[in-house]
Design goal:
alpha/beta; four-stranded mixed β-sheet; 13 helices; globular; single chain; 31% helix; binds shikimate-3-phosphate
């Protein structure tokens, strides 16, 4: 699909975003192995989270969506059954990596794979710890999907993550639910903690001590009623739009403000963004609030170390902001970007080149000079949802209409993106 985006004079109004992708995956997986019914409102409408739902259903938890509420009926930790066919995780790294933790403990063999992009993403990072817990996993070329997972009786372990990855940490913790005793994970820097919060909501015993997280195996998990906060990573596109388009003033209602995700807002404020947070409440252990933002003078900044890990999904749109800022943006310690849905350092650079924007590349990041002019161009998502959306936002500040090829990729996390953009951009 080819989407045409015209330059905007303002991005204004109020929007509400579909549920957070990370939290939706976790609620669906845990509801699938809990006892009894769960009702999840504001579940992500993105294709990735629908892939998780389809997998959970294929494994024997009944699920239906009624009046926008996802109802999942789990049959307990041992209630899953062998799926009739291979599981399809679509484009979703979270689905294959986190669900593998559960599959590794099942008394049956499961094959799980996905689309072309997912089939190029590294799986060794979950295969190593799961093998140490007792599972046997085969992968294409020993590291890529599809995975064939021969479940086994798992034993608890203590594991130090070699990469900062919430998906890997979550995979090990989910496997730990099936091991007798305590499973402990040490992570190099703090990453999103939705798994720990969700595990507690469903009744598991989780302990967090700095960068060490442990879970006690064989808990009794019970179905819950939960509401998923709006997705802050989806909000990021609109926040940046409001910062780079003149005359903008935008309110994003009901967005997730979990401190392990909200480094985005701190970073924007540090760069000069005028942001107000109102009406903060909490649900399912997650903070939720309204974010008000208006066009501001953005100085620029540096993303490195722990902060890079905390903002990893927002970097494509922050690159766009960097080019419009006074002093530009430097990103380091971001080699994980090379193994996302696309090599995002390369796909950012290609679209920058097409818009006539300067960027200097490094193996683990890039530098973008500030005060650049955005030229109209034919841009490409390269099949990556965050690249589709980041460059649709860049197009709002271009000197003429831009085309986004493969714009439908946005539906992986945010099917309503273009409709929402049309409502607020004038
Ligand atoms: C996610 C963790 C991050 C992030 C992804 C979602 C999660 O991946 O990029 O979009 O829900 O745990 P990594 O764990 O690979 O860093």
């Amino acid at each position: 699909m080819r989407e045409q985006i015209s330059p905007a004079l303002s991005v204004s109004g109020a929007i509400q975003l579909p549920g957070d992708k990370s939290i939706s995956h976790r609620y669906a997986m845990l509801a699938g192995i809990a006892e009894g019914p769960s009702k999840i409102s504001n579940y992500s409408t993105g294709a990735d989270c629908q892939s998780t739902l389809a997998c959970v259903r294929a494994l024997g938890a009944e699920s239906e969506t009624k009046d926008g509420i996802v109802c999942i009926h789990g049959h307990g930790l041992d209630g899953l059954h062998e799926p009739a066919a291979a599981l399809d995780a679509g484009n979703s790294g979270s689905t294959i990596r986190m669900l593998s933790g559960i599959l590794a403990a099942q008394p049956f063999v499961t094959t799980i794979g996905g689309d072309e992009s997912l089939s190029r993403r590294p799986m060794q990072r979950i295969m190593t710890p799961l093998a140490q817990m007792g599972a046997r996993i085969e992968a294409r070329e020993n590291r890529f999907p599809p995975l064939t997972i021969r479940g086994a009786k798992l034993h608890p372990m203590e594991y130090t993550l070699p990469v900062a990855s919430a998906q890997v940490r979550s995979c090990v913790l989910l496997a730990g639910l099936y091991a007798d005793g305590r499973t402990t994970v040490h992570e190099p820097v703090r990453t999103r903690d939705h798994t720990e919060l969700a595990l507690r909501e469903f009744g598991a015993d989780v302990e967090v001590n700095g960068l060490t997280i442990s879970v006690t195996g064989r808990p009794h998990l019970e179905g819950r009623q939960l509401r998923v906060p709006g997705d802050l990573s989806s909000a990021a596109f609109f926040l940046v739009a409001a910062l780079i388009v003149p005359e903008s003033s935008l309110t994003v209602h009901g967005v997730g403000l979990n401190p392990t995700r909200s480094a985005l807002l701190d970073f924007l404020v540090e760069m000069g963004a005028q942001i107000k947070i109102l009406d903060v409440s909490s649900s399912g252990g997650e903070l939720i609030g309204d974010v008000l933002i208006r066009k501001s003078h953005i100085r620029g900044g540096v993303l490195e170390k722990a902060r890079t890990a905390a903002l990893i999904d927002e970097i494509p749109v922050l690159a766009v902001l960097g080019a419009a800022s006074e002093e530009g943006l430097m990103v380091r310690d971001a080699s994980e970007l090379r193994v996302k849905e696309t090599d995002r350092i390369a796909t950012i650079a290609e679209n920058f080149k097409r818009m006539g924007l300067a960027i200097e590349l490094h193996q683990d990041g890039f530098e973008v000079p500030g005060r650049q002019k955005f030229h109209a161009a034919e841009l490409d998502s390269f099949g990556d949802h965050r690249i589709a959306m980041a460059f649709s936002i860049a197009a709002l500040a271009a000197d003429g209409p831009c085309a986004i090829l493969g714009a439908d990729a946005a539906s992986v996390s945010f099917p309503e993106f273009f409709d929402t953009l049309q409502r607020v951009a004038r």
